[in-house]
Write the structure tokens for this entry.
Amino acid sequence: MSWLLDGEPAVQRAVRTRLLGEPLESPECGVLSSRLMVEGTIPAILDSQDPDGHWGGRDRFYTAKYSGTVWNLIILAELGADGSDDRIRRAVSAILDDGQHRASGGFSTTRAKRDEGGLGSMVIPCLTGNMVFALIRLGYGGDPRAQRAIDWITTYQRFDDAEGTAPTGWPYDRLEMCWGRHTCSMGIVKALKGLAELGFGHSAEVDRTLGEGAEWLLKHHVHKRSHDLSRDSKPGWRRFGFPRMYQTDVLEILLLLTRLGFNDPRMDDAFELLESRRDKSGCWILQESFNPRFSAPIEVVGEPSRWVTLSALEVLARRSALAVAPFSSEDTRSSRAG
């Protein structure tokens, strides 16, 4: 714990709120909230921003991986940046103007230059989920445009598992890699990540989508192929990183499921994998990163990671706090533990 509390202010505040249970309004967290905007990774990212609110140019808000506007907003949200900062306000305004498809509320990888806003043919689920996560975390969840993005997820997100026929019509016809007969795993995880910021009880539509998404992940035992549980969905999911951008891993999925109150036997293999990654000092290593492509580096690959360790310890603490009777997505909300 002393090592975790020796990190940059953003890490320290996250440790205090996520592990030690301190309220964000506590004097210590108040000091750290001020410091994290002037010390460490957050100001380094903000200092590289373009005057128009974007990073890497207006037309490359997504394609400039991983230094464009959408990626920096995800990172700032993960680190707990203050969304009221003028630079973040400009960035949020820029991505809502240029990246959100006005007709549907989903987020597009490409700007429609004639009428502004996102291009409908390039709206994708992982980006929409990530933007919902970032908007809520940065304090813009009450914006009607954020609600439209939430509605896009609850309306269009699918959980197909290579059974039956592929969905048809917009948006499913355009990008088979996102939909098809087996919906993209990353799209499901990021959609769940965005809605998890609201949690169960927000609305019937959000509850339904969270339940279906969680059951899809549990059906896959977090990181397995549902039709052959001896095989991994993607081998890279066994390698932990931070932040995960549009990719994911076992740790991120466990963090989402436990935050939503799930402690299902189908998660046991993933919990064992998480425990096996702890080193002799009790920490977890940063195994994957896009540091060379970030606007500012975040920790060092191959070395103990405060961010990964924090998430791992939160997962294990939440698992321990859940009731003895496991919860699955088929249970009612009233029986959910934690």
